Amino acid sequence: MNNSKMRIRHTAKKHVSSDKMCEVRILYRLVKEAINDLKGTGLLVNIVIITTMTAILTIFGVFFRSTLSISSFAKELGKVLEVSVYLKNDSNIDYATKQIEEIDHVTKITLIPKQVSWTSLKKELDLPDITNPLPDTLHVRIDKPANVEAVCDSVKKLSYVEDVNYAKDLAEKISTANNILSHLMFFVVAIIGILTITIINNTILLVIQSRKDEIEIMRLMGVSNWYIRFPLLLQGAYYGFMGALISIIPVYMVHKHLMTVHNFFFVPSADYALNLVILTVFLVGIVFGAGGSFICIKKHLQV
Q1: Which residues of 138-159 are buried (b: 16+ CB within 10 A; e: fewer)?
Q2: Which of 256, 269, 276 lies closest to 74 in space, CA to CA?
Q3: pTM of the entire structure?
Q4: What are the chain's domains?
């Protein structure tokens, strides 16, 4: 009985291996078809398409990398943005500090005693010998400029707080700049997608028209739809991949210049910035390239 099971398993393994080899041969055939389609498109046309894709993806990559740098500068400005909290006389400073630290988005609190403030002010101005009128001050640092207003509202409700002050205009400008960048990035991605899909769509349409008779024969032979589609999808993805590969060169040059600016102003740049941009450019190129092919196939090839 055991010997029979072993023979069955051995036979099954042989069949699985054979099926896998069959899949490999089919994949090889599909890749070969895609290469033939590329050759059939013509060298000049391929160069024009890849060059256009490179230009489009370079614009996207440069804009994306610049956006990351601008965000880093905005984040650094946000870190130095502080809220000055003026305490009432005879307030318990330790208790006030502990309570404010528990408020969401507060990252750091620095105490400026009123005597220190008064001494500094007297050095700058010729003041009469009067009683110190200044309050104890807490400089509260917040994680993001967008959260300043919410923190201020929470701090104002505390009974021992006399007043709250911060650079409201600066906080609003930083927050507005970040919002504009986010919307602009979405707009650029949309434009890149439309341009890429349009270019690939027109190219694949030419391939479909040139292979019209061959595709019709494959249909009559009962060839599966994915066998007809896959080489065309590969061709679109190839254009996107090559465009992304070449666009790395100008994107890297821009990255080097931006790093010089970061170092000059002592503003740290995200370690993953370049890798993230390169990965995103490849994804955008390949996905939109294959997407353009897919749309064209659905529109002009009834398979």
Answers
A1: bebbbbbbbbbeebbebbeebe
A2: 269
A3: 0.72
A4: 29-76+174-300 (no CATH), 82-166 (3.30.70.3040)
